Amino acid sequence: MFLTKEEESILNGAHGEIKALALKTIIKIGESLNAERLVDVSHVHASGLSYLTIGDAGLVFIESVVSKNAKVKVFSTLNPVGMDLDDWKKMGISEDFAEKQKRIVELVLKLGFDPTFTCTPYLIRKPFPGEHLAWGESSAVGMANTYYGAYTNREGGPITILSAIVGKIYEAGLHLKENRVPTVEIIIDGEIDLTDPSISGALGIIVGEKIKSGIPLFKRNRLTSFEAIKSYTAAVGANGDIAMSVIDGITPEYKDLIKKAGELEKVHIDANELKEIVKDSIDYIPDVVLMGCPHADLEEILNFSIQIKDCKKINVPVIISTSRYVSNKLNEMGLLQQLEEKGVIFIKDTCPVVSPFVSLKFKNIVTVSGKSLFYLPRMHDVKVAIVPFNKVGEVVCRKK
After folding, report:
1. Is the pLDDT assigned to residue 400 strictly greater than 70?
2. Which of 24, 53, 144, 166 has a 20 to 30 Å separation from 188 between CA atoms?
3. What's 5-177's CATH class?
4. What pLDDT digit, counting tens, does each position of 336-361 carry?
C-alpha cells in the first residue's frame, strides 16, 4: 500500500504507540481488500458500545486503547448504548449491567468522542457529497451513502475507534466511485404508499432478503420522504449486506452512477408482498408500541403527536427511543411534557435492539420499524408486528 510520509511516520511510532497500532491494523485490513492507499476521514461514528452486544471482551479492548493515552483526531460520535444513562433504573436494568455500561461510556468519553449516543449521527452533523467517513452503524451508513452521497463502508466497532485516533481509513469498497455503481434494479409492482416509514421498512426487509448484497437501484422512485428513506436503509442494512442504494431524485450521484451501470438485472417486488408484512390493523392489544429504530427525529414525533392529539390518555404503553439532541429540542418546544402527560415514555441514549429491557418486560410488541421487526424476535425472543406509521395512533388510542 502506498503511504504518505506522514503515514509512514505514524506507522514507525513517531506519534506514539497507539497511533502506530491503529494505523497498522487499518492498513492490514485495507491490504486484505486490495486497497492501494488510505484516505482522510472527516467524521467517525463508532458502533458496538452496548454492553449487551460487546460484553467483557469489548470492554477490555476499549480499556486497552484508553490505557495508551489515545485521543480522537477528528469529529467522532457514538452509537446508542445499552440503557438510558440518566434513567436506567426505570428500564429495569440491573446494577451489574449498569456499572459495566457506565464504564464503557466513561472510557470512550476519555478518548474524546462526542456524547451523542445515537444511531442518527447525520442529524448531529450533516454529511456532504463525496466526503470520506468511517461509520459503524448500518442504518447510518446506508443514509450517508444513499441520501447524502458521502463515502463510507460499514465498519466494525473496534475499527471505528482506531480510525478516530488516526483520522484515516483504507480506500476500498464504497470509498471508490467504481464500487458505488448499482448492481440490480428494483421495480415495485402495484400501488402502495412508500412514503410511509413502516412500508418502506418492509421494502428494505424484502430487498435485503431477495438480493442479499450489492447496490439496489430505484429508477421510478416512490421513496420520496426523508423518514421513508431512513426506515428503508435501516431495514435493508439489517436483512442484507447492503450499505448503499441508488435512488432517483435522492442520491446525489444518481445520474452519473446509472450511466456507468448499463443494463441491470431487474427484481420485481409486488405491493402485496409489502401488505403481507405491514398489518393494516391488529386484532389484539399489544404489551407495548415501540418507536424510534432508528432513533426518532422531530418530524416523526410531531407526526405521532398529531395522530394522538384527540386522545387524552393513551391506552397502550408507548416507548419512543430518541437521541439527547432530539429530546432536548422536544423539551424546548414543550412537546416532551405534553406527550409524557398522555403516557408516552421517552428513552434516550439507547434503543430496544441493543438494550436488555425489552426481553425483561414485554412479549407482544407493535412497531413502525422494519429494522425492529427483523431484529427484536431474533435478539429478544418476542412477538413483533408492524403497522403503518400513519395508523399507529389508532393502535395506542384504541380502548381495551
Report:
1. no
2. 144
3. alpha beta
4. 999 999 999 999 999 999 999 988 88
Sheet of 265-270: strand order equals 246-247, 216-218, 184-189, 265-270
What is residue 342's DSSP assignment? T
pLDDT tens-digit readout, 75-96 = 999 999 999 999 999 999 999 9
The 3 state secondary structure assigned to 246-295 is EECCCCCCHHHHHHHHCCCEEEEEEHHHHHHHECCCCCCCCCEEEEEEEE
The residue among 239, 43, 41, 79 whose CA lies nearest residue 156 is 79
* CA-to-CA separations, 394 to 231, 314, 316, 320, 367, in angstroms, rounded: 21, 10, 10, 16, 13
Residues sharing a CB contact under 8 Å with residue 135, sequence separation 6 or more, in sequence order: 43, 44, 45, 47, 121, 141, 144, 152, 154, 155, 160
State in words which class domain 288-397 has.
Answer: alpha beta
Identical fold at 5-177 and 288-397? yes
Which residue's entry shows cell 467517525?
Answer: 44
CA–CA gap between residue 336 and residue 330 (Å, rounded): 5
CA dist list (Å): 93 to 98, 269, 320, 360: 7, 41, 17, 9
Where are the domains positioned within the chain? 5-177, 182-277, 288-397
This prediction has a pTM of 0.96
φ, ψ for residue 89, nearest 5 deg: -65, -35
DSSP run (H or E) holding 164: helix 157-166
